[in-house]
Write a structure and sequence with these properties.
seven-stranded mixed β-sheet, binds pyridoxal-5'-phosphate
Length: 389
């Protein structure tokens, strides 16, 4: 089928890349060892700090988010170290596996994929660890497979209450630049991020934001590392250079994306994502479908995962929507495959894009004969109108 107009990319990342960012990347590559590059890199490294809400170091790798997970692990831990992690969904599972591949012992708090990381569990397990054998706590801030967020402030409070010195490592891949994340205030030691979601870039860059405490741990961490080594990166970044060839073109895009976030104002960006999250959930409720996230305090404002009614396959539903309306929705991952579809509402996005997205879902429900109530789009429009400032 031939489609006209723009494709709707409403998966929860990669997200729509704004024209301004595309244009910023549409240029000749420059010498990454020359003065123009060094100026660009220094500007970006400084500009990333407010996005993580940190005064600490941020490093940029050419790589996907999975690489930044690995960087967090190999730079701070040694084989045989214990870490505490929480099962929130597929991405917490994969991060856990990455740690285990390096011989790190993961105590994994089980979860049903409908709730965030439990601060009460963190408190209990850390308080019982009198010998301080846990070297790190690993939490996915916004679980992209389920649309559930975890309170990092509460996890930090539990760590403080237990008086536990473990590092706090947080995956912000689908929250950074969309949902409030405060590296310094929440005492996060390593934040893990990627370019393809709230930062509105194509995939291809990943990040670690690093506290002083994490840098100190880096000195004694024994896991082998080369490409991901913070010291090599920080040593060169100091002068605006990289230890290997950087993704120059993506960095031009990143500079523009940072300018856009700064122009809009981070608080306004968070407010916009909140409004779109609320409006999406209003639509889902009006359709009488079920949101995967069970606790309203943990709703994700960057995506909404929705259960298909019994007897209906989510992938077939997504196929019908793609074919008929040229819109991509997120698939259910792993144990949610076929059972769940995910609506991405993060990144470069506005009210009318959301209205179009939800209209596509509503038309798809009708076309696929999925049992639902009418009125989801109307409910979303009412929610948007009521929250318009
Ligand atoms: C929360 C989260 N963590 C990690 C990843 C893995 O990132 P990547 O696919 O860029 O390697 C993703 C990807 O969607 C994610 O959403």
């Amino acid at each position: 089928m031939i489609h006209s107009g723009r494709h709707f990319l409403q998966i929860p990342g990669p997200t729509n890349v704004p024209d301004r960012v595309l244009r910023a990347m549409h240029r000749a590559v420059i010498d990454h060892r020359g003065p123009e590059f060094s100026k660009l890199a220094l500007e970006i490294l400084e500009g990333l700090r407010p996005i993580f809400q940190t005064s600490g170091h941020v490093v940029i790798y050419p790589g996907s988010g999975t690489g930044a997970w690995e960087a967090a692990i190999v730079n701070t831990l040694s084989a045989g170290d214990r870490v505490l992690a929480f099962e929130t969904g597929q991405f917490s599972n994969l991060w856990r596996q990455a740690a285990e591949h390096f011989g790190v012992e993961v105590e994994y708090v089980p979860g049903n994929w409908r709730h965030g990381a439990s601060a009460a569990e963190a408190l209990a397990r850390l308080s019982a660890d009198h010998a301080h054998t846990f070297k790190a706590v690993m939490v996915v801030h916004n679980e992209t497979s389920t649309g559930v967020s975890s309170s990092i402030a509460d996890i930090r409070q539990a760590m403080n209450q237990a008086n536990h010195p473990a590092l706090l490592m947080v995956d912000t891949i689908s929250s950074l630049g969309s949902v409030d994340f405060r590296q310094d205030e929440w005492g996060v030691d390593v934040a893990v991020a990627g370019s393809q979601k709230g930062l509105m870039l194509p995939p291809g860059l990943c990040f670690n934001a690093i506290s002083e405490k994490a840098l100190a741990a880096n000195k004694s961490a024994k896991l082998p590392r080369s490409y991901w080594d913070w010291q090599g990166m920080l040593g060169q970044n100091h002068n605006g250079f990289f230890p290997y060839t950087p993704a120059t073109t993506l960095l031009f895009g990143l500079r523009e994306a940072l300018t856009m976030l700064q122009e809009e104002g981070l608080q306004n960006v968070f407010h916009r994502h909140r409004r779109h999250g609320e409006a999406t959930r209003a639509a889902v409720r009006a359709w009488d479908l079920e949101i995967v996230c069970e606790d309203p305090r943990e709703y994700s404002n960057s995506l909404t995962a929705v259960f298909m009614p019994e007897g209906h396959n989510a992938d077939e539903f997504r196929r019908i929507i793609l074919e008929n309306f040229d819109m991509s929705l997120g698939a259910g991952l792993s144990k949610l495959a076929g059972k769940v579809f995910r609506i991405g509402h993060l990144g470069s996005f506005n009210d009318l894009m959301l209205a179009g997205t939800l209209s596509g879902v509503e038309m798809g429900l009708r076309l696929a004969a999925v049992p639902h109530r009418e009125g989801g789009v109307t409910a979303a429009l009412q929610s948007l109108a009521a929250s318009k400032t």
